[in-house]
């Protein structure tokens, strides 16, 4: 850190802390150097270091743990389980700029399982759509969806359209964009796993990183299934919450 | 496999398959040898192998994936997110015999965070209770709970009592056992991580295995907090589900 005589020392130190965090030098959840070490690093007084840490704590950058030290706050995206929030809203709430890339789209004969889930005849063609959601420039979530053919074509068209506009969306947002059908109910299971090669490559996380796998089946009001989806969320960036009466 | 002349060959083969799965030689989700390989392994006809695989599939041991092969079913415990199921019910539904061990209990002055969550004065003593839940002989979930002192003492007493009877329970079941207070609401967050040393040791899983971390705060009807709990569930054994209207 180069000291700047026009700003109070502690403010410069807060900027330095923010930079370390933003650049990943101090990753989320990691312990930062002790007050004494920071005094020595910058040749400043303990009072200045304490003032900077307090300020960074108020800004939500750091968290002091009683008797353990000071840690970089692990700010995960906190997604509700009971009500749906769109991908755009979820990212915006965390102050991230949402965008989505269409990774792949193709038609394939359905296998027995997919046909059964989507209430189709085994072998009937289905439409696969793969999306990658970003918060700022960071890949956050992968969506692998399978639709009945006609719906899938419309969804992919809407996806390419929104992608062209630089919008952030998941497949759920595409129903409104197409205005074709509106899902009424969703069944979801939440599982955990460690990232395989494909996930590592797309979510830009380390091999062996923990991920959420959320499998969803969407249904229309009459009970007809419209989508079978597997979504992969970065475990270091996502948490899900629920509040309920017992 | 030693062939036994008193049982049909395919039945013996099903027993062999079950044994491979039970003993973990074929882990959940893994691909089993091809029909041809199994014919050669046991010197039996393709018809016999097919009959055995069909039988094992009907029993829910195996799952055939179109064009990919046959896999060991990954039967996870499927826990509802919307309503509460007791630990005992959850294990029993999967045909597992539930039991619980009290790992640890101690009194400690609260740190600022715990005191704030439990609505106590910083430093006021709190009661820690650690439980380990088993399905059959397999460790399934770890519960680290913190209670206000008086409640904690009662909960620990109930826990030791139920443990002595060989019962399966989580901290939630202890409220009824004590008959002291009854939680009315719970706030929960679901996170994923990989197992650290303590978790590895107690859940008997490999270092780096994915786990669910479920943080809960339980409240009484008036809004008073009664328990702060971190629960760790084996990622290879648990999944959570929710069905909801959109």
UniProtKB/TrEMBL annotation, chains A, B:
Matches recorded under Gene3D superfamilies: Chorismate lyase-like, Winged helix-like DNA-binding domain superfamily/Winged helix DNA-binding domain
UniProt keywords, alphabetically: DNA-binding, Transcription, Transcription regulation
InterPro entries the UniProt entry points to: Bact_HTH_transcr_reg, Chorismate_lyase_/UTRA_dom_sf, Tscrpt_reg_HTH_GntR, UTRA, WH-like_DNA-bd_sf, WH_DNA-bd_sf
Gene Ontology MF annotations: DNA binding; DNA-binding transcription factor activity
A Pfam family matched in the record: UTRA
Gene Ontology biological-process annotations: negative regulation of DNA-templated transcription
Residue span, HTH gntR-type domain: 7-75
Coiled-coil regions listed in the entry: none
PANTHER family associated with the record: MANNOSYL-D-GLYCERATE TRANSPORT/METABOLISM SYSTEM REPRESSOR MNGR-RELATED, MANNOSYL-D-GLYCERATE TRANSPORT_METABOLISM SYSTEM REPRESSOR MNGR-RELATED
Name of the protein described by the UniProt record: HTH gntR-type domain-containing protein
């Amino acid at each position: 850190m180069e000291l700047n005589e026009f700003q109070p020392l502690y403010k410069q130190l807060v900027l330095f802390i923010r930079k370390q965090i933003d650049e990943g030098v101090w990753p989320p959840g990691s312990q930062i150097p002790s007050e004494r070490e920071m005094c020595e690093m910058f040749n400043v007084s303990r009072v200045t270091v304490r003032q900077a840490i307090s300020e960074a704590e108020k800004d939500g950058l750091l968290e002091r743990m009683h008797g353990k030290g000071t840690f970089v706050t692990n700010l995960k995206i906190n997604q509700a389980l009971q009500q749906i929030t769109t991908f755009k809203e979820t990212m915006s709430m965390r102050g991230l700029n949402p965008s989505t890339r269409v990774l792949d789209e193709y038609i394939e004969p359905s296998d027995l399982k997919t046909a059964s889930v989507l209430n189709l005849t085994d072998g009937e063609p289905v439409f696969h759509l793969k999306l990658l959601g970003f918060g700022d420039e960071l890949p956050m979530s992968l969506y692998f969806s399978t639709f009945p053919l006609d719906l899938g074509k419309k969804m992919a068209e809407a996806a390419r359209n929104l992608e062209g506009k630089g919008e952030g969306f998941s497949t759920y947002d595409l129903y409104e964009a197409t205005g074709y059908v509106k899902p009424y109910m969703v069944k979801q299971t939440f599982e955990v796993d460690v990232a395989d090669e494909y996930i590592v490559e797309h979510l830009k996380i380390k091999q062996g990183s923990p991920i959420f796998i959320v499998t969803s089946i969407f249904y229309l009001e009459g009970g007809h299934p419209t989508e079978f989806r597997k979504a992969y969320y970065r475990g270091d960036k996502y948490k899900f919450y629920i509040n309920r009466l017992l």
